[in-house]
Amino acid sequence: MARRRLTRRPSIIAIAPDAPSPEPSSPRRIGFVGLGIMGSRMAANLARAGHELTVFNRTRATADAWATEHGGTVAASPAEVGSASDVVISMVVDGDQVREALLGEQGVAHGAQPGTLCVDMSTIAPAQTRAIGAELQERGLTLLDAPVTGSSPKAADGTLTIMAGGTAEDFARARPLFEVMGELVVHVGPLGHGEIVKLINNAVAAANAATLGEALLVGHASGVDLDALVTVMGTGSGASAMLDLKAAPMRAHDYATLFKLEHMLKDVRLCIEEAQAAQVPFPAAARARDVLVAAMARGHADDDFAALIEALEAFAGTRIDG
Length: 322
Hints:
Strand content: 5-15%
Structural class: alpha/beta
Largest sheet: 6 strands, parallel
Low-confidence stretches: 1-12, 14-24
Mean pLDDT: 93
Number of strands: 10
């Protein structure tokens, strides 16, 4: 199947000063495990860039549909992906799924040759990342953690922010692939630090979203023009990415999923665990967790996390009507 050539502006790269130069961005054998909302779009960008992809998804029909549209080979197991790939990217839901994909009975490690680079772009606990990395190293494989921020539209157009943890050498190997999937690519430190940076970022996003929801409710209950409120906030010190992305969906009660509420809750919980381990309080994250839990209880697990407004409306005893 003919592939469109991927064209967009170059990525902005921030790397450690001693990082080696990246390898040329020539076609490579890439494995991709996990073709969900984000992974399917990220893998599509790699295919459009000319890389040879072998893909696996737990639901075979999803992988078959992806390959029909984008080309590539569908594997019967992650181990088969490993045997066909020089670099294997995983993009799944949680740490248990990452471990199963890379180290399970049919995991990548059972098919991959020594020297294969695994790049986990999921968001999981840093301790799990380090443990998985240590086990892969015993098998002659290496691991980068490279979670992303940016919802499905950014995954589709290749403008994600990617924060990678691992050695400078492994980062250099993966960097040409990151440049295809992301606009800002940052080598943030050793293995596990990508996850820590991502968790903190998402906890701040969730806290901001909850604060935005409360602000909209105060404005609504006070009778002010919400269009005017959002405009003023957007040009003043109340501006934020959450205001730009979530004010309209919250007001319209439109929860079309860009990032699932249950996934945001998972990330916030993991961030709180890191904060506790560091013996640093993070009350804003704890407050956001409670709001997300309440929204989950109201049946919004699979909705976009803008649905947290439902919990806030119930608590306030009022509902935004526009």
